Structure formats: C-alpha cells, structure tokens
Amino acid sequence: MKDKVKNIFKSENFRCFLVLLVVALVMCLPMLKDNLDIYYDDGIQHISRAFGSFEAMQKGINFGNIIPSFSNGFGYSWNLFYGAFTTVGIIICKMATGSYIIGYKVFAFVCLLLSGIFMYKFVKDVSDNANVGLLAGALYMMAPYHLTDLYVRNAIAEFASFMFIPLVFLGLYNIVQKEGKSWYLSIGAIGLIFTHNISTFYTAILGLIYLLVNIKALKDKEVWKYLGINALFIVMITLCFTLPMLETRFSTDYRVYEDEAMATKGSVLEQRLSIKSIFVTVEGSGFVFELGPYIIIMLAFSYMTIRIMKPEFRKDYLFFLIAGLVTLLMSTKLFPWQFMPKFMYIIQFPWRCMEFASFFLCVVCAINMGAVIKKYKFKDAIIIIVIATVYVMALHGFVRYTESIDPIENRALGQVSGMNNECIAGMGRAEYLPTKAYENRFYIATREDKIYVLEGKAIIEKEEKIGLTLKAKVETFGEDAVLELPYIYYPGYEVRADGEVLKTHETENGFLGCKLSFGDDLTLEVAYIETDNSKVAAIISILGTLLLIIYMCRMEREN
C-alpha cells in the first residue's frame, strides 16, 4: 500500500496536477479580497438566480423551475430556458460555506482548476506528452479572455463552459482515433448543455467540422457506433432540461425567442473587436481581449512545427491551428458578420469567439513548444508557465473592485418597475417573460397580488397565496367567469375547482388564466406541479445517467 502511495506522488500526473493547482491558486488571488465586485455585469444575475432557485427548492418547487418571489411576486423562470449547472454549483458551494458570495468564489475556483486539468488530459493524449499537456492546461487557465469572464464580466456560465470544451474534443479524438474512452464526449456535451447554450451551439458546429476533417474515419462502422452511443446518452441525460425547455418554447411566445430580441445584425457588428485589441489592452477599455505576447511568440513556431511533425498528426494539428485563427478572426471587424446567416447572431457578441480561439491556440502553442524545444522537459514547461503568469498578473489592474459587497439576501431582487430597457437584478432584461408580459411590464409593476376577474361576475373570498400555491373561495353569478391568476404564465401550473382540473391559458397580460363555470362557493386551488412531460423526462435522465455510469465502468474494465 505504501509503495502505491509513493508511486502516486512520484507520478507525472500528480506532479502536473500540483502545478496546475498552484497556477489556479495564483489566478484566484483577487478572490481573497472582500471588495471584489462580483455583482458587476452578469454577476448579480447568476448569484440572484442561485439565491432564488435555492429559495424555491426549499419551498418544495422542483429544481426551482419557477422563482416565486421574482417578477414582483408573480414568478419568473430561468431554469426552464437556461441550464442550471452553475446555479446548482453555486448553491452546493453556498451550503458548504454558508455564503453565496464565498460559494460563488469557491465554485469559480473549482471551474478554473478543472478547466486546466481537462485541457491537460486532452493535450497529453493528443501529443502523448504530459509536459505538453501541462503547458496547455496552464495557458488555458491563464488565457486573458478566460479571466475576463471571471473578473470583469462575471459571466460564470460562460466561464464554466471552458471546462467542458476539452472533454468534447477529447471524446471526438478518441472516437476518431479509436483510442477508447469515447464517453468523454458525453460528459463534455452534457456539461455544456447544462451550462451555457451559446457555447454549446458553437462547440457543436466546431465538433462537426472536426468530424468532417476526419471524414475518412466516418467510413468505419465502429466510429458511427460510438458516436451513436454517445448521442443517445447525451439526449437521454439532458432530456430533463431540453424537453421542458422545448415544451415551454412551444406553449406560447416568450421574449427570448422573438426575432432580434437578444441580438440584431447591427448590435453584432457593433461588438466586433479592433485588431489592436487582440494584441494590446488599452487602459480604460474595461474588458481584456488580448492573446498575450507569449501566445503570439509561441504561435510563430507553427510553420516550423508543421514541417517537423509526423504526417499522421498533421491533420489534427492543422485543424486546431486553423480553427483557432478563424475563431480569432470571427471576434474582429475583419470577419464579415453582415453576411452570416441569422441563426449565428445567437452569439450576441462576436468577441465571445475568443473562448474558442483561446482553447485551440493554447493547444497549438503547447504542441509547438514540445516540437521545437529539443528534449522538451518538465522544467521547460515550468519556465514558460512562470513567464506567462508574470504577464497575466500584470493585467491585475483590470480586475474590478468596489467599496463593499452586500449579502445577496439584502438586495431587492426580481422587482419590475415597468421602465423601458431596465436591467432587473435576478431577471436580466426580463427576456424569459412571455412576450405579452414583457410588453406589459408596467402592468406587472402596478398589478395587485390577487385574482382578477376578466370576464363575467364573481366574488372571491378567503384568498390565500403562498409562493406558487393559492387557495380561494369563488362564487360566480349566472355565467362563466374568466379569471386571471396572480402568476406569470409558464407551463406546469395546475388549477382545480372543487377538485376538478381546469384548462389554463395565457391572458392578454401574459398571466395564467382559467375559465370557471358558474356555481356557489367553489374552492379554487392553484399549484405548480410541473408538466407530465417534465416528470417523464426526469425519469429518462436518471435512467440515462445510470446507463452511462454502467457503460463507463464496463469500458474501463475491458481496457
């Protein structure tokens, strides 16, 4: 046993993991300051979402699909539209630390470290060299745009998605090269789907291009078998999110799906980067988009690497290099976004392509150093990592600080004022409201928290609303009555009158409505219970997870 423990500590993996841990700790030093402005930009939204979702789950609302206190107490949903991985991660870390702020920081540190470890694993397998993998993992963690997501934009979902991109391409690489462990593709893709929609979409495109580059491998039935198996796992396990999202999408019109709601051709063109910002960050510019001079220098060795590289490795290397340069170009004004198909505008900001440029170019740079430095060793990787660390730490001035950070519990969250283009803490730009509710935000801001009678005559008594449950006595007179309930319209609500389930609909104000037959002293009950499809999807996801675990164990045993 002692020998096994000694071997672990002496292994190259342990040594590399230790270096990556040190790099992650150094990159996270600004988090030790209490006045780090984690509420700036996207930060307030992600932490508020975690707070609201946990509050909802404590009240028995499954997965916190609807946050009852948001939208002025009428309910608001993030989790029906946006993967909940980061929300659950922050909640878990909050439960461990007792604070949403500390929980957010701990979760960010874990994401940063895992992104480096997964990148290390990917490049180590591709290059068959642990020291090359170490350099790639460290460079990936220190990529300026990666840290911009963390310290300037506070875009924790996009930041977390950095973890899963290496796993997606490791899975694809293993399938194409028949290296085994194809399940990395499932883990990476599932993680992306539950984390960040936009990163998932663009990773899927790049992954498909990678397969097309290796189109000869697709002639092998075994390759298709493993692609099919992983596709099945991905669909099954993510169904608990994708099916409710699709069901919500087609139940009524929501603002997020409106044409040009999230981005327009004009807004995309405005957000392109200048070429200068790729090379140097001007003081006062806010975001850091530069590659870093050390990356540019290492990229300069690409031609030499291509010349000395073995032919069987050249195809993948060229894909990484070209994909890195193209995604870098896509972030700038040189790329013709005005001619791109409309669906690509989902990216909102072209500079988001820097995520993929950072990934591919860090792979290329590490491979370059392994190729051009004779007898490339551990110490060579350390020297380059130290140089890169010194440069990145010099960018510390772009980290945002504030006077003080109040606990999220003390903030007014989800309060709609009705003003045009308002940004609401916990609700973003209210893009996940039904379109009718979005266009009537002043109605939300001024509406009373009770049942309204839209048609017919009715007396409502003993009305009691607690979160997403409501109970009242209703008496109608001579004709059916149409009621508007004090809930924003989302699928999953059940309305009963004297135990009989009523059909619900969306009112003209984007609220939950129902038609009530006339009668004396009817008992009206409302509860959010999710849809039947959501419940079936959850069962399938659990089954898919168990099957994936069994599949992984079986593959490991066979190997």
Brief characterization of the structure:
The protein is an alpha+beta fold. It folds into two domains: 15-405 and 540-558, no CATH class; 448-528, Immunoglobulin-like.
Can you describe what's shown?
- A hairpin with a 4-residue loop joins β7 (504-506) and β8.
- This protein has helices spanning 2-10, 12-27, 43-58, 85-97, 100-127, 130-142, 144-151, 156-161, 164-177, 183-193, 197-213, 221-251, 265-270, 275-279, 293-299, 302-308, 311-330, 354-372, 378-393, 435-438, 441-446, 532-558; strands at 452-455, 458-466, 469-476, 481-488, 493-497, 500-502, 504-506, 511-516, 522-528.
- The protein is an alpha+beta fold and 559 residues long.
- It folds into 2 domains: 15-405 and 540-558, no CATH class; 448-528, Sandwich (Immunoglobulin-like), CATH 2.60.40.
- It is elongated and about 90 Å long.
Task: Throw out a few tags for this protein.
Immunoglobulin-like, 559 residues, four-stranded antiparallel beta sheet, 9 strands, 2 domains, alpha+beta, elongated
Q: Which structural class do you get from the secondary structure elements? A: alpha+beta
Q: Strand order, main sheet: write it out.
A: 2-3-9-5-6
Q: Outline, from the CA principal axes?
A: elongated
Radius of gyration: 26 Å
The amount of helix comes to: 40-55%
Count the DSSP helices.
Answer: 22
Sketch the major β-sheet: 5 strands, antiparallel
Number of domains: 2
Distance between the termini: 23 Å
What fraction of residues sit in β-strands?
5-15%
Provide the residue-averaged pLDDT.
Answer: 94
The overall strand count is 9
Q: Indicate the low-confidence ranges by residue numbers.
A: none
